[in-house]
Write a structure and sequence with these properties.
11 helices, mainly beta, 5-stranded antiparallel beta sheet, about 35% strand, Transferase(Phosphotransferase), domain 1, Phosphorylase Kinase, domain 1, 4 domains
Length: about 850
């Protein structure tokens, strides 16, 4: 029907694939209908494992699709060199299943899934191609497997000819009768079988022989690898069930089976295998009991008391929890999920209808309940008895009963990077992103320090604490430099004293009360055993669970009960695109390549765009809008970009030998980085004025977020802006430099305020129903801000005074929102459009939790 060429898009300076219809077919109306249908279907699918369409074009009589160019080999080419080991095949199969699952969710069946239509990039990513035979499902559903579509062609060949590739056709497809999404499940089973065995599930000398095998024969099940876990053997049988009524109905279930850690789950026996000195099975069982009773002589970390869960062991079971309606997981840069110690409840932070709050779901129930008064919550954690949930919100550490009721404030905590509730009635928590750990009674009261940052070593943060069962020892992550995958995990007494390094290179530790330590690194969970006699680890860390979402702040999205059940968020890609949005909400994409972006900032002349890209750590990139070129700007970590008023410099935050500090560099990349901030506290740049004042977010003596103004000239003098006991964030200068708009929790919830930049006079509240992420219109008389998913605006009645008019809704849209510390969008130089980020998948669209009961028993 056509050919595919590699081509160069000279306008956007990128390589693309161009799919061209052969000229003799270009005049065939029915063929063109199919060709354009493929374009429409691809345009409706946006997924990291589906090749993207850029456009449907024509030049005279020539019709062609412009598509993403995917480098690498097809799976068919790879299989010419032999089958894939199980450990290599399963991640690829999971990605293929995720792509088809996304298509099915959009009502699209592929109908020609095969190794030749799957690309493997050099980085190991799978991309599903060629939706030329795909078709949108009808709106009505069949009783068993969703809507049914005819497999016979209505155009391009003689009527009744079967569409597809014989070796991967389902029996119903081979017969030329109606098919539904289960035909893709069959093809997926064929592909997975071939990856594992290096042979086709159904073979023959001719196409007729192959179709006969599909209809009557069984695959050679003995060819499957001996190390293939039994649950995956069962999965293949269910995918390749000839009776469509007995076949696996949903490819999403296949993905869950593949990603399930049943083959490598950390059970008690696997934990014992990690020990340096193997012992007979009975000896190992006794030693586990001994370790649980005697882990009390840690060198430098003495007195750990462990308790065994007396409940009977039950077999592991895994399932998914779908968030209801349009809800999605929120605040995923921080821990967003928690399971109660006795696995009776799950708590999570979700956003629905524009606001985020805590939800609690009993495991025996199908319904989750929102807890009033927990708006803006992050980092939930349970009390030891499971009756209370601790969390952070509005600059405070708080708690609330699982049944709801009044929310109690326990301590100041500007942001909150993890908390752990001890059996002794105290909570150990990280109050900020640049702090050590503190302890406070669970009923509130005075805080006291638990750890001390070692400035000489360049430590800037202690976070993600985990406590032993007696609450007397804490394990936590220590940030020095680099990504959080390079952090140390250490242990010490909550009373202070020496600490012992347990792990070099990991984050988010979780201690199990039988002596095992879990931690995250690179999106996977590792486990190791702590020796009861010396406090040292036994054996090498074991990789026990793949594909966990891990944020750039070192938060891994998993929580484990005292008896070894786990809830987690599967690893996802933050795939975002940069778009213009006008005041009606209409979207126009920019040509910036899709990526894991945040903090978009336009240069003053609107010709360049600074972005933070989170790829193996955060770095700042600059995109030349006119030239279509994206170049990396920082090379040692960088975030929170801020342009100077003339566009010649860019301020940013980076961790260089200490806590996050403010640096300054020329945008033409000449010269080096100049440090603008000093001191032991983390500081993040936010906005710059025409006269060279840089608004910086830091913290006051109470640990609350505070705004400071740093002079960009001379000795970089610092002054506090509008001191108050409240927590402030997201300061932004008006274009004329007269005003600063910012967020404050002075009223008890986040609202937008504005004040004179010279600090004279009172602050004026601009919003009345919640507000974050303010940005000024270039005319300096209007402020844009977010209220949940709503984009709002408020105008000043005068250019000389802060006299706000009524708030007005511009549009409601689920664009990427920030954590509240700064805006996740910017305003065009003429004020007519907003530059925003649109989530195409990943963390911004997580609507599912995974639960495995009995995982680590």
């Amino acid at each position: 029907m056509g050919a595919v060429y590699r081509a160069r898009d000279t306008r956007l300076d990128r390589d693309v694939a161009v799919k061209v219809v052969h000229p003799p077919f270009a005049g065939d109306t029915e063929r063109m209908v199919r060709f354009e249908r493929e374009a429409r279907l691809l345009a409706s699918l946006s997924h990291p494992h589906i090749a993207t369409i850029h456009g449907l074009e024509h030049d005279g009589e020539m019709r062609f699709l412009v598509m993403e160019l995917v480098p690498g080999l097809t799976l068919a080419e790879r299989l010419k060199h032999g089958g894939l080991p199980v450990a290599e095949a399963l991640p690829i199969a999971s990605q293929i299943a995720a792509a088809i699952e996304a298509a099915h969710e959009r009502g699209v069946i592929h109908r020609d899934l095969k190794p030749g239509n799957i690309m493997l990039t050099p980085t190991g990513t799978a991309k599903v191609l060629d939706f030329g035979l795909a078709k949108a499902l009808a709106r009505d559903s069949s009783a068993d497997g969703g809507a049914v579509e005819d497999t016979r062609t209505l155009s391009g060949t003689s009527a009744g000819t079967v569409l597809g590739t014989a070796a991967y056709m389902s029996p119903e497809q081979a017969r030329g009768v109606g098919v539904d999404r289960r035909t893709d499940v069959w093809a997926f089973g064929c592909v997975l079988y071939e990856m594992l065995t290096e042979r086709r599930a159904f073979a023959g000398r001719t196409e007729s022989d192959i179709i006969a095998a599909v209809l009557t024969a069984e695959p050679d099940w003995s060819a499957l690898p001996a190390d293939l876990p039994p649950h995956l053997v069962r999965l293949l049988h269910r995918c390749l069930e000839k009776d469509v009524r007995r076949r696996l109905r949903d490819i999403g279930d296949a993905r869950l089976e593949i990603e399930a850690p049943s083959a490598t789950a950390l059970d008690v026996s696997s934990a014992s295998r990690m020990a340096a000195s193997p012992a007979p099975p009975r000896t190992r069982a006794l030693s586990r009991v001994g370790a649980a009773a005697a882990i009390a002589a840690l060198s430098g970390v003495a007195g750990w008391t462990l308790k065994l869960d007396p409940r009977p062991v039950r077999p592991a079971a895994h399932f998914s929890i779908a968030l209801p309606g349009d809800a999605r997981l929120a605040a995923i840069d921080f821990p967003a999920v928690a399971i109660s110690p006795r696995e009776t409840h799950i708590a999570y932070v979700a956003e629905a209808g524009g606001s985020s709050q805590l939800y609690v779901r009993p495991l025996e129930s199908l319904v989750a309940a929102a807890i009033p008064g927990t708006e803006g919550a992050i980092s939930p954690f349970f009390s030891p008895d499971g009756e209370w949930i601790g969390f952070f919100s509005a600059g405070k550490l708080k708690k609330v009963a699982i049944s709801g009721g009044s929310v109690r404030t326990l301590a100041d905590a500007a942001i909150g990077f993890g908390g752990a509730w001890g059996a002794d009635g105290n909570i150990v928590f990280a109050p900020n992103n640049g702090s050590a750990l503190l302890q406070v009674p669970a009923d509130g009261g005075a805080t006291r320090p638990v750890t001390v940052l070692d400035a000489a070593r360049g430590e800037f943060s202690h976070r993600w604490p985990s406590l032993t069962s007696d609450g007397q020892h804490v394990i936590y992550a220590v940030g020095i430099e680099g990504s959080w995958d390079d952090a140390q995990i250490v242990a010490q007494s909550v009373r202070g004293g020496d600490r012992r390094v347990l792990v070099e290179g990991g984050t988010h530790p979780r201690y199990l009360q039988d002596g095992r330590l879990l931690y995250a690194r690179g999106g996977a969970i590792f486990a190791m055993v702590i020796d009861a006699r010396t406090g040292k680890t036994q054996g090498q860390p074991q990789r026990v669970l793949e594909s966990i979402f891990e944020s750039s702040d070192g938060a891994a999205q998993f929580s484990i009960s005292s008896s070894g059940s786990i809830v987690y968020v599967p690893g996802v890609e933050n795939d975002r695109r940069v778009v213009w949005v006008d005041h009606t909400g209409a979207v126009q994409p920019l040509a910036v390549p899709r990526g894991p972006y945040s903090s978009p900032r336009l240069s003053p002349d609107g010709r360049a765009l600074a972005l933070v890209a989170a790829r193996n750590g955060e770095e700042i990139w600059i995109y030349d809008i006119a030239g279509g070129v994206l170049k990396q700007f920082t090379h040692g970590g960088g975030s929170a970009p801020v342009w100077s008023s003339d566009g010649d410099h860019l301020a940013f935050s980076a961790t260089r030998d200490g806590p996050p500090a403010v640096f300054w560099r020329r945008t033409d990349r000449s010269g080096g980085d100049e440090r603008l901030s000093t001191g032991a506290d983390a500081q993040v740049p936010q906005s710059v004025s025409p006269d060279g004042q840089l608004a910086v977010l830091g913290q006051d003596a109470r640990g609350n977020r505070d705004i400071m103004l740093v002079s960009l000239a001379g000795d970089h003098a610092v002054r506090q802006f509008h001191p108050s006991p409240a927590s402030e964030s997201a300061p932004t200068f008006s274009r004329n430099g007269r005003w600063i708009a910012y967020v404050s929790d002075e009223s008890g919830t986040n609202e937008i305020y504005a004040a004179r930049s010279d600090g004279i006079g009172p602050a004026v509240r601009l919003s009345s129903r919640g507000g974050t992420e303010p940005r000024w219109h270039p005319n300096s008389t209007e402020v844009f801000f977010r209220s949940g998913t709503r984009m709002m605006t408020v105008k000043l009645r005068s250019t000389l005074a802060l006299a706000p008019g009524a708030e007005r809704l511009l549009f409601d849209g689920a664009f990427v929102s920030g954590t509240g510390l700064s805006a996740e969008y910017d305003v065009s130089p003429d004020g007519a459009r907003l530059l925003m980020l649109e989530a195409l998948g990943g963390a911004d669209s997580v609507r599912e939790l995974r639960v495995i009961l009995g995982w680590a028993r």
